[in-house]
Amino acid sequence: MVLVAAVTVATAVLAVTNQLQLYIHPRYILFTVIMVAIGGVVLVASLIARSAGQEDSEETPGRASRAFSYIGLVLAAALAVGMLALPPATLTSATAQQRDVSSTTVGADTQDAAAVASAPAAAFSSFTVIDWASLLRQTTDVSFYRDKPVSVVGFIVPDSEDPDNVFYVSRFFVTCCAVDAQPTGIPIYLPDWSATFDADAWVQVSGTFETNPSSASTQPLAVQPSEITPVEQPSDPYLY
Amino acid sequence: MVWLVVGVLGIAALLVLRFAVEPAALPNRLQDLLTLSISVIVESLPFVILGILLSIVVQVWLPEGLLMRYLPRNPVARRFCISLFGIALPVCECGNVPLARGLIVGGFTVPESMTFLLAAPIINPITIITTHQAFGFDDGILVARIIGGLAIANIIGWLYSRHARPYELLTPKFAAECARAEGDDHHHSRWGKSLDIFVRESSAIMPALFIGALAAGAIQVLVPREVLVSLGSNPLWSVLAMMVLAFVIAVCSNVDAFFILPFASTFLPGSIVTFLVFGPIIDIKMLAMLRTTFTTRVLIQLTVMVGLLSALLGLVVNVVA
């Protein structure tokens, strides 16, 4: 019962503070809010019904594996406490590295190289890391990227092959909820970047794709940054 | 009652803590574990509530025996009809657990309810629509998913219908609840009974959901995903890798097609089908939730059987496609 109340309250708080999108895709928010509201009403009703003197039908715990169920209950309670007491957060670079930023095939068809080839330069300012990553998979011909300025926002994930000189500007791509978040990023070449920036920091990067000077990295192209500025984490950090 | 007051005060105190205190930053992995687990809960919660509400409708508000009356008498045909119930219910796997429990309490046999439970997440309308959006009719993935899911549910329902004492499949606690419901006392109002069921079901399901979510989050933080993805192009290993992925990822059946779509280019179609059939029925979160209803022994049998059948299905699709 207490768990139900905890999760209902926690979800309601998330909904009110507009932070549900840290956990689920925006298209599910309405459904979630409606069901949680119904759940909340029923919950309050059953609390009232109970205190109005109906008999308590609390079951005695099953004889088997009682210790196990206590451990489970403690874990569940710990999670509930974490859910209530800690502010929500996005996934970090630890998970991004776990899920392999460079080899992801998310949004394979978001941008078509042939269609993009002749687009005016202004069109690229709205391109996200997903759009660029999608183009990178289609062509690594450096002349294709001439006159196509890159300007993207994302968080820093160190490259696994050349962590000193290359990092990925990354975003998580969410189809349903944070569980299925797929990291996507584009490589940035900046020798000794960690002297200036930390992993997980949110940055805005401008520049153009050039042949990757790093010998350790297997990425043929990387952005030569003309400007990297730290930015605040966007209010909806995931891409959909 | 005392515990309830303690609980309410505790929740309030924790909320105050959240907004009043500047939090210490957690290590990345712990933070991600928390984020992932909460994400599973927030995603499943509305479906669980919907499932409990539907379960209440079946148990309390539908005229007694209404569903029973129109079902065929022949057990095989009957289970097949029950396995089609899901078409009308937009509830994914976590919501089906309370509903399947409601069906047992409402008089269905255990194998019948199990048939429903296994088939419903795969043939529910949202799942079919999203699978079609993701894959169209390419490589027979959609067709293989629907037919395969129905076949597996019916085969397993049939196997368990051979069991001499089906009530032994249930946990003693849940079996006792069913027995109590049969000798029902009629002096509760319908509303009172509905509230009772809500309280009972949510206190049974919620801890299981929390533990399942925590396990799913922990595995995701600890197991690197590329290990699985690198197995993608081998006909046999790709199928096994997808089963492990489905088990670990515990994503809702309504959206798993979108989740797996990016992998479609590296994995063979048969392994995708295996993911789409195995995942909705068995995953780490589902096992925790099913444990509220079935004995551990049954769950192990279920996992092995569904695993073998969906692997077979995947291999057949790999060979044919």
Q: Strands, helices and their partners?
A:
The complex is a heterodimer of chains A (240) and B (321).
Chain A: H1 2-16, H2 29-51, H3 66-85, H4 93-98, H5 113-116, H6 129-138, E1 150-158, E2 166-173, E3 182-189, E4 202-211, E5 221-230
Antiparallel strand pairs in A: 1-2, 1-4, 2-3, 4-5
Chain B: H1 2-20, H2 28-61, H3 66-70, H4 75-84, H5 93-105, H6 110-123, H7 125-135, H8 141-161, H9 172-182, H10 190-222, H11 226-229, H12 235-249, H13 256-260, H14 269-281, H15 284-290, H16 296-320
Helix pairs in contact in B: 2-5, 2-10, 4-6, 4-8, 5-6, 6-8, 6-14, 8-14, 8-16, 10-15, 12-14, 12-16, 14-16
Question: What are the defining features of this structure?
Answer:
heterodimer; A: 240 residues; alpha+beta; OB fold (Dihydrolipoamide Acetyltransferase, E2P); 32% helix; B: 321 residues; mainly alpha; 16 helices; globular
Q: Can you characterise this structure?
A:
The complex is a heterodimer of chains A (240) and B (321). With 240 residues, chain A is of the alpha+beta class. In chain A, 32% of the residues lie in helices and 19% in strands. A five-stranded antiparallel sheet of chain A has the order 3-2-1-4-5. In chain A, β2 and β3 form a beta hairpin. In chain A, α1 packs parallel to α3. About 5% of the residues of chain A have low confidence. By secondary structure, chain B is mainly alpha-helical. Chain B has one domain. Chain B has 16 helices and no strands. Chain B is globular, with a radius of gyration of 21 Å.
Elements of chain A, N to C (H/E)? HHHHHHEEEEE
Class of secondary structure makeup of chain A: alpha+beta
Number of helices of chain A: 6
Helices and strands of chain B: which structural class? mainly alpha
Report the largest inter-chain contact.
A-B, 76 and 72 residues
Estimate the mean pLDDT confidence of chain B. 80
Label the CATH architecture of the largest domain in chain A.
Answer: Beta Barrel
How does the major sheet of chain B shape up?
none
Rounded average pLDDT of chain A: 75
